[in-house]
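#structure-requests
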Amino acid sequence: MEHKTVDWKKYLLVFIITGVIFATAIAISNYFGQKKLDEIRSIQDKIAIDILSSETQFSLLEDSSCKNVSKESLSTELGSLEEKLSYTENELGVNDPQVVTLKRYYSLLEIKDYLLMNKISEKCKITPVSIIYFYSNKGDCSDCQKEGYVLTSLRETYPDLRVYSFDYNIDLSAVKTLIGINKVKNNLPAIFIKDQSYYGFQSIEDLEKAVPELQVLKTKNATTTNKK
């Protein structure tokens, strides 16, 4: 009987190559995983700073003159933070603990911004142009994603418009209080503009009719653009 010689060098080479590929895959996975974590921490830090800034603005507002107060006194990065939050949510999933924590931070920032805007409105007679939006991403709101796109487009068209978006199901007492104050029904999407509530999908045209001030903003933006 003829015995075949085992080519150990070949098997060793295959083993080494496999090990290198496996180690490289792990390194790449860890790199991108760490990058995502770094992005999440960066967003958390930015929101935390904005919350502290908002609290400080409350104190400053009490003693400031209205000539030094404007809508620009408020945070101007809510939209940018929301886009980063949506990206993180899509990457890690809506139930990821880090995403949930991030959303809680962001919801608190929105509420503080909303309160500060109302404070400025009362003291300085500045009419706020804002929309409060309640949604669900549990799979029980077929129009919520579409409504989100509409509000994003509307905010891009009218930079001075403030859109506050809240997850109806988030476990956060401040949001639950906001839901109770506005008597929000579990019939989403739900939009609140001034004292009016709108349930179900609302198009851009519907919202422009509901907020006549947007036409003023459009004229203002067009005038500013023409001057440049």
